[in-house]
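FAQ

Q: What does a record look like?
A: Structure on top, sequence underneath. For example:
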């Protein structure tokens, strides 16, 4: 009974982590763009006159999306129109369960695992669910029952497939080095020190893979400069016939995808919940593990947000060329070099 209750609590923590951080990212995105463009940014929402630099805007956004009319045009294919946003968001949320938010700690005579769903194939599980999320994009475009929506859906699917293949190829190198597909074991493999000084984090042992992973992850989650599937007002996207909370679910899917990609990056390249030179034991150690993983994920999210407001959008042909002709060959070359390096080292 206790293990089941603990697993349910950790799944609840993963959902709060993902949804809470996604809501906060909406505010960060607005405020960061305002700072970069020398504007004040979102600062109107208040509670009893308190604005606190616009921090109430995510709450106002949520209330607006939930109370706005869900307008469904007559010509759309209704079953697919309703299913597509739920499929996209559901796949992203399910990925959170496999992230290693922390390791194990001892308390009250038993071990407590801070990973909601420990699995020996956690990486494969996350990549498979991200791939399944492509169906939500295609379904939304098809459900629009118009050429505009369908073209937007096909454009989004082509981009996501291209960069998810790249992401899998990029991660082959570090996972071969760690000798496992279990994300928790991959984090533990980075716990040693190189020459007694440098942590054996993936960012130091696989620097090329880290850079390629960031680019592929940003493109797979459809963020600027790779946001062609959405395109806001400039390009008609796959969610052209959506409004209200269904549109909000697509928006949340993008943020959650970002969080999953950054959580994966923190686990595989930044040592996950590990803190160098610090022994993490007991309940305090567990709290430090959670804080360490949270801080590393937020650092990567901040970096991706910074890129979003710095680089211009690519053309679609440039975007696909970058994935298939540059990232994928470099990823495979990195994997081969890793295998040869390990063979020669032995």
């Amino acid at each position: 009974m206790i293990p089941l209750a603990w697993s349910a609590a950790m799944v609840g923590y993963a959902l709060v982590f993902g949804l809470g951080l996604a809501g906060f990212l909406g505010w960060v995105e607005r405020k960061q763009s305002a700072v970069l463009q020398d504007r004040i940014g979102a600062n109107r929402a208040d509670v009893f006159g308190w604005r606190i630099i616009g921090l109430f805007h995510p709450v106002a956004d949520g209330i607006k999306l939930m109370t706005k009319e869900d307008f469904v045009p007559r010509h759309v294919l209704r079953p697919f129109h309703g299913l597509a946003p739920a499929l996209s968001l559901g796949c992203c949320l399910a990925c959170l369960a496999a992230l290693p938010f922390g390791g194990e700690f001892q308390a009250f005579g038993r071990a407590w695992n801070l990973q909601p769903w420990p699995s020996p194939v956690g990486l494969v599980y996350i990549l498979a669910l991200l791939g399944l999320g492509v169906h939500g994009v295609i379904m939304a475009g098809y459900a629009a029952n118009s050429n505009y929506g369908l073209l937007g859906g096909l454009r989004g699917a082509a981009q996501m497939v291209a960069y998810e293949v790249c992401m899998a190829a990029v991660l082959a190198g570090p996972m071969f080095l760690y000798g496992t597909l279990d994300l928790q074991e991959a984090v533990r493999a980075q716990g040693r020190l190189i020459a007694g000084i440098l942590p054996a984090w993936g960012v130091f042992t696989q620097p090329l893979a880290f850079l390629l992973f960031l680019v592929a992850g940003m493109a797979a989650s459809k963020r600027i400069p790779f946001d062609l599937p959405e395109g806001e007002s400039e390009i008609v996207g796959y969610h052209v016939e959506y409004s209200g909370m269904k549109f909000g679910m697509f928006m949340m899917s993008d943020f959650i995808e970002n969080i999953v990609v950054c959580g994966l990056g923190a686990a595989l390249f930044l040592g996950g919940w590990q803190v160098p030179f610090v022994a993490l034991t007991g309940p305090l150690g567990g709290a430090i593990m959670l804080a360490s993983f949270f801080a590393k994920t937020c650092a990567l999210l901040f970096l991706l947000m910074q890129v979003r407001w710095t680089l211009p959008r690519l053309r679609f042909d440039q975007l696909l060329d970058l994935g298939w002709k540059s990232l994928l060959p470099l990823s495979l070359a990195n994997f081969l070099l890793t295998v040869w390096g390990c063979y020669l080292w032995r």
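Q: Is there anything notable about this one?
A: The CA atoms of residues 76 and 144 lie 5 Å apart.
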